[in-house]
Amino acid sequence: MFDKLYAALVHYPIRDKHDRAVATAITNLDIHDIARSARTFGLGGYFVVTPVKAQRWLACRIIHHWSAGWGATYNPNRKDALSLVNIAPDLGHVADVIEERHGRQPLWVATSARRYPNTLSFESLIDHIRNVPEQPVCLLFGTGWGLHPELILDADHVLEPIAGVGPYNHLSVRAAAAIIFHRLAALLTKASEDN
Amino acid sequence: MFDKLYAALVHYPIRDKHDRAVATAITNLDIHDIARSARTFGLGGYFVVTPVKAQRWLACRIIHHWSAGWGATYNPNRKDALSLVNIAPDLGHVADVIEERHGRQPLWVATSARRYPNTLSFESLIDHIRNVPEQPVCLLFGTGWGLHPELILDADHVLEPIAGVGPYNHLSVRAAAAIIFHRLAALLTKASEDN
User: Fold this and answer.
1) For residue A49, pLDDT beyond 90
2) What predicted TM-score, i.e. pTM, was given to this entire model?
3) Which superfamily, per CATH, for B2-194?
């Protein structure tokens, strides 16, 4: 059922430390780490989203190196993970690709270290995935200081923040994505076994 | 109780893709990401371990930049996370620092994507932490293609691998550390609530 779960790493609009909307740069490790986590937990795909054309070109070059270039022979595991990656200019493009595959627009679930009025628990998201199996779900992850509030408020839901053991809660997006995929996969497996 | 849990990121002896023992290079994001995850989940400390003096010097410079240099003002959250980081030449040094703090040598628990004869489940590790609260625990993480088997067989235990949804299991060490800290913190909280 996880093949209908997607992740999108958003590079615009992103908050900077002064809460301004900015575009962030694509980083090599964001592509690799999140692709490897997505592949390990069986996601349907991983979108790297930026409106900056030169950045998309850079991301495509990185992926090409490991998928078809010298890197594909050197490390086939990377090729395998990167086969999940799509480079997209905006979320409209992401919606189109997902709809083409599944015949439906995805449910947009933003992630954030903060709580918002439309916060959804991990358990409720799993219930939705099980109860409406025909609808794909796309998790939105922010770079920089997180997704801009305008994007969060536009999403259908915001996933509950990952709780640390104290007030400090500044996971990297690579760490947060890994924890979220793992937790959703564990809850989905448990829910399937219970029934 | 998590302040007795430590993590060490090992750069030697590490497996390369041909199973030879090599020393890997320290990377900037390994320091930051794992420090931020360790801080979020309340670990007692995070050791970055390499026998290469020039690499330790580099790691110290990175930490100094964010702890006392210009970066400390620019992003205090990083300073906060990096206060957990210790740069060490070998695991003997790690043992000394932990023993000085807690009066006991740590239990060494290696992590690996493979199963070994002395594999320990997450639940058993939590039982140990609760039953022997005076003993610190140090999780060992490998860079490159993972900890060299000689180090794994020397450890007291090997933590069970993180299960993906299929045979692919190539998480980055940054992702694996985040998932392991999160899972241990969740199990420990649950065990404390149950009693």
Assistant:
1) yes
2) 0.95
3) SPOUT methyltransferase, trefoil knot domain (3.40.1280.10)
